[in-house]
């Protein structure tokens, strides 16, 4: 049996400084049965001209007549993809040479998995950190998606049959976090996993979409994340009051500059307890508590609170069913707080 066709999808917009490296990292993959689908979303620089210089019959270039936005372009990518799998690649990142080979190997041997992400290395800044997730299994990811997305979008590979069978679409109203919304939709009908291998170099330290939206459109970004949270909680029949939902969304907000009210700090342990009490039908309670505690600790580490307040709030959750005191998590809270405090100077 021949190797299945993989569509590598690269959406582009004004990325002349990086698209050459990104494209070459795919052209030089150890896995050769590729369709490389590049969709330009109305670039005004030399992006398209750079791509057209490459002479490889695997390249398929589509140009939007005008800037349509990333959700529209992602939906067009799904529509135009011909592969059994679609690997998503950002125009400023670099795929390791065996990325596609390793992901196909995993997907072919795990037919019940509908999408995967991988570990990745951050490049472009002063530190080349490797980002690993301790949440990798389908059940762990299903819980985590109630709070945050644990999957790095540009490292992902999707089984296209699942997307097309269920007519899943990226939400056109999500100018950010459209990938988070898609992972949630896939999790409702299938399974997601994270392959514990570093297969991508993710570029930071330059003006990208995520950086711009966090600083200029934080309020609108929060509205989108709130919408995804409501969808996830509703799908699994969690019952929170309007005030509890507001406090939940305030706490599980990925903007580290957001203020955290005393009301939310007081209520969040009660909300977490309520969620663990209601999770029986769709989740294993012990696993749900374990992953919820991890997401709580991660969110707490991002908020602008004194270290003493963080430690006190962490300790208040330990009495919740199956929440346990973890020296490792407490150390993480403290080290991240100290790092951010030193970074300011």
From TrEMBL:
GO terms for molecular function: hexosyltransferase activity. Residues 7-142 form the Glycosyltransferase 2-like domain. Belongs to the glycosyltransferase 2 family. InterPro entries: Glyco_trans_2-like, Nucleotide-diphossugar_trans. The lineage of its organism: Bacteria, Bacillati, Bacillota, Bacilli, Bacillales. It comes from the Bacteria. This is Glycosyl transferase family 2. Keywords: Transferase.
């Amino acid at each position: 049996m021949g190797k299945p066709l993989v569509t590598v999808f690269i959406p582009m917009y004004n990325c002349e400084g990086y698209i050459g490296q990104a494209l070459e990292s795919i052209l030089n993959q150890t896995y050769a049965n590729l369709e490389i689908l590049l969709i330009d979303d109305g670039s005004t620089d030399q992006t398209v001209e750079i791509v057209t210089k490459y002479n490889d019959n695997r390249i398929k270039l589509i140009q939007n007549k005008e800037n349509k936005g990333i959700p529209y372009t992602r939906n067009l990518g799904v529509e135009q993809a011909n592969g059994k799998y679609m690997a998503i690649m950002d125009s400023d990142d670099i795929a390791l040479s065996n990325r596609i080979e390793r992901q196909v190997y995993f997907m072919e041997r795990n037919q019940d998995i509908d999408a995967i992400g991988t570990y990745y290395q951050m490049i472009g800044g002063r530190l080349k950190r490797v980002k690993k997730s301790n949440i990798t299994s389908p059940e762990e990811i299903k819980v985590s998606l109630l709070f945050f997305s644990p999957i790095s979008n540009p490292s992902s590979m999707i089984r296209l049959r699942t997307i097309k069978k269920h007519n899943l679409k990226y939400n056109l109203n999500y100018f950010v976090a459209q990938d988070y919304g898609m992972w949630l939709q896939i999790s409702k009908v299938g399974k997601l996993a994270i392959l514990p291998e570093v297969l991508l170099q993710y570029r930071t330290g330059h003006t990208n979409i995520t950086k711009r939206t966090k600083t200029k459109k934080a309020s609108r970004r929060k509205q989108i994340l709130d919408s995804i949270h409501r969808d996830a909680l509703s799908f699994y029949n969690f019952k929170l009051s309007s005030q509890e939902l507001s406090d939940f969304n305030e706490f599980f907000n990925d903007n580290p500059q957001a203020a955290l009210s005393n009301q939310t700090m007081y209520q969040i342990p009660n909300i977490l307890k309520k969620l663990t009490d209601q999770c029986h039908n769709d989740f294993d309670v012990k696993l749900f508590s374990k992953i919820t505690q991890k997401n709580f600790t991660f969110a707490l580490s991002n908020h602008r609170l004194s270290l003493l307040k963080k430690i006190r709030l962490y300790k208040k959750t330990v009495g919740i069913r199956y929440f346990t005191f973890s020296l490792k998590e407490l150390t993480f809270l403290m080290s991240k707080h100290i790092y951010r405090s030193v970074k300011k100077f």
